[in-house]
Design goal:
Elements: E1 11-15, H1 18-29, E2 32-38, E3 44-50, E4 56-61, H2 64-67, E5 76-80, H3 85-94, E6 98-104, E7 109-115, E8 121-127, H4 134-137
Parallel strand pairs: 1-4, 5-8
Antiparallel strand pairs: 2-3, 3-4, 6-7, 7-8
C-alpha cells in the first residue's frame, strides 16, 4: 500500500491523454499510479503518479486553449535517483522515448534526459562519488 503524506511540492502536467500518458510514465520510467480519477464520460481526468518519496507528478487533461500551444516549453523536471540510471536509460529507450545520456557532469553526477509524449523534459540525476566533499565538487566562487 502506498504511503500518503502532505507533499511540499509537486508538478502538474497538462497532457493530451491522461491515461495514455500515465501508462507511458509507468512503462518507460517506472512511475506508479497512486490515484486515478475518471470523469463522467469514463475518461481519466487526473492521475497522480509517484517515482519515489516526494517525486510526484499529477497528470491533468489540457484545455482546448492549451492544445494550440507548443508542449513542454519552459518546463524542466529534475529528479534524483539513488541508483539505476543506466537501467532507466535502457527502459526509456526500449519504450521508444527520446533519450539523451546518461552523461557525467563536472558537478559529480550522471544525468539522463528523457522527453515524454507531450514534450516535457525530465532529467534524472545520480551521484557518481558520494565520498567527494561538496567544496571539491563545487569550488567556492572567487570574488
Amino acid at each position: 500500500m502506498e504511503e500518503f503524506y502532505p507533499m511540499p511540492l509537486f508538478v502538474k502536467l497538462f497532457v493530451c491523454d491522461v491515461e495514455a500518458s500515465a501508462k507511458w510514465y509507468e512503462n518507460a520510467l517506472g512511475f506508479r499510479s497512486i490515484y486515478a480519477l475518471t470523469g463522467d464520460k469514463g475518461v481519466q481526468v487526473m492521475n497522480h503518479l509517484r517515482l519515489g518519496r516526494y517525486q510526484d507528478l499529477m497528470l491533468l487533461p489540457q484545455s482546448e486553449d492549451m492544445a494550440r500551444l507548443d508542449k513542454g516549453w519552459g518546463v524542466a523536471i529534475s529528479l534524483t535517483l539513488e541508483d539505476g540510471i543506466n537501467d532507466l536509460a535502457q527502459r526509456a529507450a526500449s519504450a521508444g522515448s527520446s533519450v539523451e545520456g546518461p552523461t557525467e557532469t563536472p558537478w559529480n553526477t550522471r544525468e539522463l534526459t528523457v522527453w515524454d509524449p507531450d514534450g516535457y523534459m525530465l532529467t534524472f540525476s545520480q551521484v557518481v562519488d558520494a565520498t567527494r566533499p561538496f567544496d571539491e565538487v563545487i569550488p567556492p566562487h572567487a570574488t
